[in-house]
Amino acid sequence: LYLLRGLVYIEAHCFQEAKCDFDKALQIGYDKTLVQLKRANCLKILGYWEEALEDYTQALSAIHNAEGTLR
């Protein structure tokens, strides 16, 4: 629910609301990498550069680690 609603909020340019839903999605255990990437986009648009960079870094690290385990 929270992930999907967050995506709808992004489409409606309601980035603060989307960020709140992505925060909640992370709290209850949604796919961390996907949610962090989406939340990072919101944070960047809202001007929270350092927080966005943290989310991007963690998400990309998780993707990189997952790719390494597939080889």
Uncertain stretches: none
Biggest beta sheet summary = none
Give the averaged pLDDT, no decimals: 92
Number of strands: 0
In N-to-C order, the SSE pattern is HHHH
Cα distance spanning the termini: 33 Å
Quick one: overall form? globular
Helix count? 4
Name the beta content range: under 5%
Structural class: mainly alpha
Report Rg.
Answer: 12 Å
Helix fraction?
Answer: over 70%
Task: Give a written overview of the molecule.
The protein is mainly alpha-helical. The protein contains four helices and no strands. The protein has helices spanning 2-11, 15-27, 32-46, 49-70. Helix 1 (2-11) runs antiparallel to helix 2 and helix 2 (15-27) packs antiparallel against helix 3 (32-46). The relative contact order is 0.15. The model has no long low-confidence stretch (mean pLDDT 92).
